[in-house]
């Protein structure tokens, strides 16, 4: 049984900024009780205070999700404070914009630890807490880059592909064991958050999101919706679905499109100077924010996600149409 949102206890990793922060505040508006996790204590306490002004209870647990002992403690703290866990959202992510050759082994390891192993740790901790209560929902925020890949984000793409593979296996295990635990994978397209400011960059400039860009509220609405009515997969942003379908129809032509006139290299490099500050090794400092620097070019919502992804029957009926559109785009790129 899935509880109504106002009765849920929700754990959110990566809650200090961006998607995680906005998700926490949306859950607060719905009356959920929150357990907020990230490495930045100051930013987490800000979120907790704001959640309190919205009438929600919030408990802060500073956590590095790459460390199993800390993730296990996060689950224990949630159960000790609120008695159970109903929904667990894995959202903590880091990135580095660089070629594989430019990256150090330590950087590669750290990206995999947070973006993949941290999700596995979080899911494992959630299962142990949810099973005694008859189930719950695990929501893993992957990326459209779990469905395709782009240059300069190779290790990040590999980690997000890993999240998809992990979720697909975990979902079957939970069903086979009849645990009552749902597993939802969220696939955001480019989102206007501080992610790009916090990423490590070897581009010579600050990175930027590949257009089109959506606001983080779009993803947060999908996460809260999945907590109320669990779904297998939710693609956030019609652009993400189009690129995913292009990749399925013709990987070679999709690569050609991305590399044509160095398209994906140019689209990820901004004109802003790199401040050489990132959250790869250590959490960001000071207060956090929901939104990034790209609001002038972002869309406040995704009609595709609202109409199709949140309504599975409509989504299935639309797949043939989307496949045809993607095929037409691939053929155009090949000319």
Task: For this entry, give a set of tags.
about 325 residues, alpha/beta, Rossmann fold, 12 helices, about 50% helix
Short account of what is shown:
With 335 residues, the protein is of the alpha/beta class. The chain has twelve helices and 14 strands.
Number of strands: 14
CATH class: Alpha Beta
CATH architecture: 3-Layer(aba) Sandwich
Spatial strand order of the main sheet:
3-2-1-4-6-7-12
How far the N terminus sits from the C terminus, by CA atoms, comes to 52 Å
The profile of the biggest β sheet is: 7 strands, parallel
Shape: globular
Percent of residues in β-strands: 15-25%
Order of helices and strands: EHEHEHEEHEHEEHEEEHEHHHEEHH
Give the total of domains.
1
Mean pLDDT: 93
Which fold name is given in CATH as the topology?
Rossmann fold
CATH superfamily membership? NAD(P)-binding Rossmann-like Domain
- Proportion in helices: 40-55%
State Rg.
19 Å
Low-pLDDT residue intervals, each spanning 5 or more residues = none
Note the total helix count.
Answer: 12
Determine the structural class based on helices, strands and strand pairing.
Answer: alpha/beta
Walkthrough of the structure:
This protein is α/β, with parallel strands linked by helices and 335 residues long. The protein has one domain (5-334): Rossmann fold. It has twelve helices and 14 strands. It has helices at 18-29, 41-53, 68-82, 105-130, 154-176, 195-198, 216-228, 238-249, 251-259, 263-266, 303-309, 312-334; strands spanning 9-13, 33-38, 58-62, 87-90, 96-97, 136-141, 181-188, 190-191, 200-201, 205-207, 213-214, 233-236, 269-273, 298-299. The strands form four sheets. Strands 3-2-1-4-6-7-12 form a seven-stranded parallel sheet, sandwiched between helices. It has a three-stranded parallel sheet with strand order 8-11-14. β1 (9-13), α1 and β2 (33-38) form a beta-alpha-beta unit. The mean pLDDT is 93.
